[in-house]
Amino acid sequence: MDAKTANTKTGSSKPSDARALRADIYDFNSAYAACIDDGDIMLWPDFFTEDAVYKVIPRENWDQNLPLATIFAEGRGGLIDRTVAITKTTVARPRYLRHFISNIRVLGTDTGVIRAEANYMVVETMPTEVTRILSAGRYLDKFVYEGKELKLKQRFCIYDSEIVPATIVYPF
Amino acid sequence: MDAKTANTKTGSSKPSDARALRADIYDFNSAYAACIDDGDIMLWPDFFTEDAVYKVIPRENWDQNLPLATIFAEGRGGLIDRTVAITKTTVARPRYLRHFISNIRVLGTDTGVIRAEANYMVVETMPTEVTRILSAGRYLDKFVYEGKELKLKQRFCIYDSEIVPATIVYPF
Amino acid sequence: MDAKTANTKTGSSKPSDARALRADIYDFNSAYAACIDDGDIMLWPDFFTEDAVYKVIPRENWDQNLPLATIFAEGRGGLIDRTVAITKTTVARPRYLRHFISNIRVLGTDTGVIRAEANYMVVETMPTEVTRILSAGRYLDKFVYEGKELKLKQRFCIYDSEIVPATIVYPF
Questions:
Q1: Nearest Cα residue to A30 out of B128, B117, C166, C12
Q2: Of A39, B18, C3, C122, which residue is most buried, by most CB within 10 angstroms?
Q3: Which chains lie within 8 Å of chain C at 3 or more CB pairs, if any?
Q4: Which residues in chain B have Cβ-Cβ distances shorter than 8 Å to A99?
Q5: What is the layout of strands, in order, in the sheet containing C132-146?
Q6: Looking at the domain assignment, is residue B59 inside a domain?
Q7: Dist. CA A14–CA A32, nearest whole Å
């Protein structure tokens, strides 16, 4: 089996379908990033389905099949709880975040659920400090369409550096 | 209102139009970056309209509606002046820049003017030093078509770290 | 000549062709990155043609037309040798890599060979360390279709910082 084929094949029969799907995911991810970086964090749960699962997992755990997640939020309610916690967290110093989401890969579609991946990098800027990399890693996503809107049924953020989590305030 | 809708809706009625537009902006931004990073900086003004406005603004100012810009260039003439200043600046140490432009968002079209945003990261490499982040931020753009060519009527570079400006030589 | 035109014109007559081609290259690069970052490095040679040339070259050399390359691999056999060397290298500390490939530019097509460029950033994470930039630079590519699959006939990785090479283990 060819390496490229393994990573890009989709459940749809026509390439143009996969292309349109990737474009939709690109737009989704751009809006998702803008919401966290420059928008209203309270709208973040709207990117997910009612029964969504959101996890932030160190890559080392993920690769060893260890279930431990740094952040775990289940259901729209769990995501809303998380945003409330963020906006009420007064101990955290103010900071700017910026997401760079690239290399989107549509892996396949099964009974309406689209599996996709992307690489993400989040850079962080504290007042009077230079911009630095907060976290880089991979999204493991499951999308569904609700009407014409994509929603995340699952987003696992598998992050490469185990040092990050102590300072996680905003979602990846 | 849905978060995604708020960020991705366009003035065009068909999604395919918005898709084609985003693709055009992608190509534009890639050429823009290549011009600064690997090309001839004297061609940089060609990416703008005759009456264009180019600003580099710290995010903190922007968020507080403060008008102060670190760099301000108005009209094709102002942009050309800026490139001349760059090429004649002998105090600046030689350096390589590289732009990463992602998360392009088409926000809407009004009487031929297309509003769009994107995240940018510029990394800088000085001789015998490692590559480091020079600036990360957001482009707030207004595009128009001149014939089949996109041109920038406005590019505001809203940058996250207030530390950067002292070393700005090349445009973001 | 217009700056944008100079960077985006292609040999194909219709823009939609260039658009489809860029989308194919995007998917190719995403799969390429996933193979190195999260997949099986032994499949990396499958992204190349039998007679491919892969080079990693410091930008300073490239700009001065110096032929010296930090890494040089010729033909599928040479690439396979390189992957074997990687997997048997026990002196290198374990590390995670992650590729961010953006700003893809299709430069032209000549007798079936597609010339394209892209910006790349590779970030590296060592155990118990933060994620840092390993290398940023530019791919100078020549692609051909083998059936419906794109393959690299040439990938030159022109990297901006001359400091990197001592720690190159995985390919860019």
A1: B117
A2: C122
A3: A, B
A4: 103, 119
A5: C71-74, C48-58, C149-159, C132-146, C113-125, C96-110
A6: yes
A7: 27
**Structural domain span for residue B125:** 3-164
- Measure the CA–CA gap between C9 and C15, rounded to whole angstroms: 9
pLDDT tens readout for residues B87-118: 876 566 788 999 999 999 999 999 999 999 99
CB of B60 closer than 8 Å to CB of B162: yes
pLDDT confidence tier of residue C17, bands split at 50, 70 and 90: confident
Distance from CA of C104 to the nearest CA of B (A): 7
Q: Do C160 and B98 touch (CB under 8 A)?
A: yes
How many H-runs (helices) and E-runs (strands) does chain C carry?
Answer: 4, 6
Are the Cβ atoms of C3 and B47 closer than 8 angstroms?
A: yes
Beta strands A96-110 and B113-125, pairing class: unpaired
pLDDT along chain A (172 residues), means of 10: 38 66 97 95 96 95 89 93 80 85 96 97 91 96 96 97 71 88
Burial class (CB in 10 A: 0-12, 13-18, 19+), B92: exposed
Which of B19, B135, B163 is closest, CB to CB, to A129? Answer: B163
**Which residues in chain B land under pLDDT 50?**
1-13
Asked if B162 and A127 come within 8 Å (Cβ–Cβ), the reply is yes
Binary contact (B98, C138; C-beta < 8 A): yes
- Residue B170: inside a domain: no
Q: Helices marked H in C13-165 — which ranges?
A: 15-37, 59-63, 75-88
Q: Do the domain assignments include residue B65?
A: yes
Domain count for chain B, please give it: 1
Is B38–C3 a contact, with Cβ atoms under 8 angstroms apart? no
Q: Is the dihedral of CA A131, A134, A138, A142 positive or negative?
A: negative
CATH of the domain at C10: 3.10.450.50
Question: Which residues in chain B have Cβ-Cβ distances shorter than 8 Å to A101?
Answer: 102-103
Nearest to B122 by CA among B108, B136, B109: B136
> What is the tens place of the pLDDT at every residue in A154-169?
999 999 998 765 567 7
Give the residue carrying structure tokens 């930090």. Answer: C70
Quick one: tokens of C73?
A: 């691999």
Instruction: Tell me whether residue A1 is in a domain.
Output: no
